[in-house]
């Protein structure tokens, strides 16, 4: 959803090997609304003897009044992190503000560099994730990019053996598809961090944020009414965060990387992390920017993706439907980025086995307390640039809002 100031700024689609992070198989397609679609890729996870089959697509938003606006979305796919064939990373970054493209690409590169260079990554993925986000945010504040009113959201999935660690900052989303009898059911791996959520609303209010939608800011509605319904029914004019006695920054999310001004009123780069143990019932997962989910529910995205054997074709179909719905409801479209990862040949016999001396399931207690974001980094990165029931639910852990002192045990996958 972005921020009011420059929320529609975008970056040109990625076409060079340098800008696409040398991601194999990326082929640019020239069209009125430029699309970059990757070819089908495969990576084996030997510790549990299954395969990830994936593809990605990024579509430049359509802005009729500003045809030169840049695409602010970017994504990163990095396999075999630290040379380990069982560790893989998928992330989507949705920039916003005047320098949103620069922020998105900076975070895309630095976050995976920090994860890749953290020697404690496999011993404690949760702490490594927190440290990487906080350190990247600090570096963005201190680099040459002006992030006072610019930044990026980030939705990322780290695959470690048969376990997914999903770290989210902002309002992009990850969803997993689960086979339930003759149905394919969606299950959110992340929860959008917006003022629609009471816990996030309460947190930013403690930091002094005013929470108002545009009509309230403009005096058309009573600002004392702090109830905006839900995101599905009132997404067109969502509640936003404002400084006291000011008309900025106007962010519709409560967490991001960058946004140094919004940080003063509670916007944080601390990620919420969910952990999901894969089972043979898990079919595929989707990592996508909010350009996809603005008018499509998680279940609709999963239903569409399930119709295609090739994840690249599924990406194209979902992006096309999202683009169409944007133009039916508005005179523009957002940038659209989507990664679909199919989980192939994961058998019951493979679940629970491990390879070598790697512990794939660290203790949840390791994330308690303050987490320093410092770590060394190296430059090795690849990349370009809510809703249904579920059977056979397994226990997973979500690391919650900074207001909480300890992790919460929830059923999410």
TrEMBL record:
Q: Which domain of life is it from?
A: Eukaryota
Q: Does the keyword Metal-binding apply?
A: yes
Q: Name one Pfam family in it.
A: PP2C
- Cite the residue spans of the region called Disordered: 360-413
Keyword field: Hydrolase, Magnesium, Manganese, Metal-binding, Protein phosphatase
Under InterPro entries, the record lists: PP2C, PP2C_BS, PPM-type-like_dom_sf, PPM-type_phosphatase-like_dom
Under Enzyme Commission nomenclature, its number is: 3.1.3.16
Q: Polar residues: which segments have biased composition?
A: 376-385
Q: Which cofactor does it need?
A: Mn(2+); Mg(2+)
Q: Where is the PPM-type phosphatase domain?
A: 51-343
Family listed: Belongs to the PP2C family.
Name of the featured protein: protein-serine/threonine phosphatase
